[in-house]
Every structure is written in structure tokens, then in C-alpha cells.
Amino acid sequence: MRAIAASPARPRARPSAASVVKHRSSGIVRAGKSTRGLFDDVLDMLEGGKKLRRWYGSDSSVGARGSRANDDADDAADDPSVDDAAPEDEDEDVELDVPRTAILVTNATGTLGESVCARLILAKANVVAEVGERERASAEGRFGPYARLASDAWSVGARLNGVRAVVACGALERGFVDACVRRKVKHIVLVSSAKSASNGLFASAEEKARWDRGREAECAASGLAVTVIRPTRVKEAPGGSKEIVFAQGDTASGEITVEDLAETCARALTKPPRAGTALTFEVSNGSEARSERDDWNALFNSLKA
Length: 305
Description:
With 305 residues, the protein is α/β, with parallel strands linked by helices. The chain has helices at 38-44, 49-56, 68-78, 87-90, 111-122, 136-143, 156-160, 176-182, 205-210, 214-220, 258-268, 296-301; strands spanning 24-25, 28-31, 102-105, 127-131, 148-151, 163-168, 187-191, 225-231, 233-235, 242-247, 255-257, 278-289. It has a single domain (4-83, 99-301), classed as Rossmann fold. Residues 1-26, 56-93 are annotated as: Disordered.
């Protein structure tokens, strides 16, 4: 496993545009139904490399042999100047002079984190998946060659080398936000349940971490561009069937599927607020079916930082 900074960036392609039928009432904007897409099928049984390669095809630019990403990785492997560092070497908190193109997803083996990674992989983003040290082996099988892994046993600075944006799905460890500032991260997308009803004894560790009210304040005080997404109750079910509703002012209610929440996180990365400001909104599934096309621009343009 190479240190995050040593791995070259993969070529990126914009996610397919989908459109939105919107209404405005009581500060709520709705997005309507799209047909079931490739992401939904892949996420049903996320199996990593083989599954994704089957969908993309053997000549895909994502992780397939002959792609730019893999060719560059092979060249680096043959280069004696590139050290195949062990985890303890990767832990060094040294800022490397590398392009900041990657998106770090924290708690990438959690339900939401895994879904966000899958969405970004399908968008051909340069993904860094933060995983527990004990989960690295299973994560390698889960994500295959389509995401670089960063162990949470490494220093925060080492995990952030080459990272331009972060999707924070779980707990924020001490010093994480300060390290984002130090490493010149441009945008943090924070999933927060600080003002949502809890799921009580059935909540996962990932969900419990999102109840921490201090996470929002810490990110807002960082001076970075911050997007705070407050989902209603998160439901582990296939997404894509119900409209997506944005609201502000703690007016949202109901629930949202984890897949639709993951898609919202991925879309939020393309709409960062100005540096030093925080854009906060609630997201839920509405009662109507999603329309054939989604206009995410309309949803995000309706929000006020």
C-alpha cells in the first residue's frame, strides 16, 4: 500500500447530469424521479474491482489495465525513487508537494461512507477512503483498485496529502479540522445529525458520531468552505425512487435513503460555498416519485449560506 500522496491522480469525468422538478413552499425545494441508474445496480452488491470493471468494461479509464491510472501506478512501481512505504512510514506528518485533486471520505467502511465512495468512484473521482487499520484488508477487496486507502492509524496530515475536499461521514478526531486548514483543503462536506431525532439503541457508531453538536461549530470556525448536510432519519434502502427535498431552517421531517444521501454529498462537492462561509441545509425524501431528470443546480441555487 502506497502513501496517499505518492499515488498519481486518476482522470476525472463529470457525473452524468440528471434533472429536477422543483416546487417551493415553506423554504422547501423538491427534486423529482430519475430512472434507476448504474449506481443503484452496483451498490446493490458492492464487490470492488471485478464488479466495477464489469460495468465499466475492460477498456475503462477507471482501474482497468491499460488505463492512465493503472499505467501511472505501474510506472511508479518500477521507479526505484518511489518507496513502497509500510504503514508506519506513511504515518509521517510531512506535507508533500503533490497536486491536491483527491476527495477524502472519512469512515469509508460505514454504511454512508461506503455509499459515498461508490458514488464518487462511478463519477471517476480521485477517491481516498479512510478506513480502520484492522479493516484495510477487507476494504481492499471492497473497493478494488478504484480508491486509495488511508488508514486511520496514520497521522491526519498524512491522510490529507493531495486532498482538496473532505466528506466527513463520522466522528471528527481531535486536530482533524486544524490539519485540513494546514494542508490547504478547500472544502469540507459535513454530514450532521446534531438536530435530528436519534435512532436510540439501534443507531450505529457512525450515526452516533453525527449527533455531536461540536462538529458543526468546529468546521464553521475553520475559515474553510463548509457544507453542512443535515439528513432526516437515514433509512438503509435503495434510493432513486422518491423525490429529494432540500430545506433550511430545521423544517424538514421524514426520512431519506442512504443512497440518496450519498448522492447529495457527492453533488455538494460540486457546489462549495465561499471560503469562510458555511452552507447548511436539511435533506429528505418527499412523497412524490422522482422525475426522469434531476436539476441539482436548481436545488443548490435555492439555498442561502
